[in-house]
Design goal:
mainly beta; 6-stranded mixed beta sheet; 1 helix; 5% helix
Length: 232
């Protein structure tokens, strides 16, 4: 006897995955259950390690093109955010009935495929791929550009470094002081960030004369206390 929530996956493909970036997957779905798929049913995906453990479980949701009756089919073009860092992963398609269950948890095995997630950028120099918002009177540490480019390769679209401030500004710039290392999801404005071309950030009021931007809500970003910008 067929279950209410069941799906049969037909042909599907995934575009080239690059760490932290958006890509696309296309799939043909068949409603193999007894219940119609309505607005609460979305196409999604998981990123798993080579043993099947979840790395990113709740992938982006993509609405179906309309209601799908039992036995009906739909073609879906999914937006997919790739995981960080680059490496070997399993990509698994799935459907989710919001606030109820993933289809793969109530019967059936979602299709999976091992894929190699590539570095986000292949550039050898930072200025080939990014806009850097560092005033001329700030002096980057010698390894600053290399560290920033490495973070972009790892998958971060926006990278901001710590500020080594003069004594008179150390309290004001305390949240951006050199620290133990990376802070993904940094809640303060990003000062003097490096931004991969094609990403638009909201500009905020300067902080002590330094260009400030709001952390992007839908793009991987990182504040790194090891990437130091010295006051000139």
């Amino acid at each position: 006897m067929a279950a209410p929530l069941a799906v049969r996956f037909h042909a599907w493909e995934l575009d080239e995955p690059r760490a932290g970036a958006l890509t696309r997957a296309r799939v043909e779905l068949e409603n193999a259950g007894t219940a119609a798929w309505r607005d609460d049913v979305k196409a999604s995906y998981h990123w798993l390690d080579e043993l099947g453990n979840p790395i990113v479980w709740d992938g982006l949701r993509t609405a179906l093109p309309g209601q799908v009756a039992p036995g009906g089919r739909a073609e879906v073009d999914l937006a997919v955010r790739c995981p960080i860092p680059p490496g070997r992963y399993r990509f698994a398609l799935d459907l989710v009935a919001e606030r109820r269950a993933w289809f793969g948890e109530v019967g059936g095995e979602p299709p999976q495929r091992e894929v190699e997630v590539l570095p986000r950028v292949d550039a050898k120099a930072l200025d080939e791929v990014a806009e850097v918002h560092v005033p001329e009177w700030l002096e980057p540490a010698p390894d600053w550009a290399g560290r920033v480019l490495a973070a972009h390769r790892e998958g971060y679209g926006v990278v901001a470094g710590s500020i080594e401030a003069p004594r008179r500004l150390r309290r004001a710039l305390g949240p951006w002081a050199p620290g133990p290392g990376r802070v993904p999801g940094f809640s303060q404005p990003l000062l003097c960030p490096s931004v991969l071309r094609g990403i638009e950030l909201e500009r905020l009021a300067d902080v002590e004369g330094l260009p400030a931007f709001a952390p992007p809500p839908d793009e991987p970003c990182v504040y790194d206390g090891r990437i130091v910008l010295r006051w000139g």
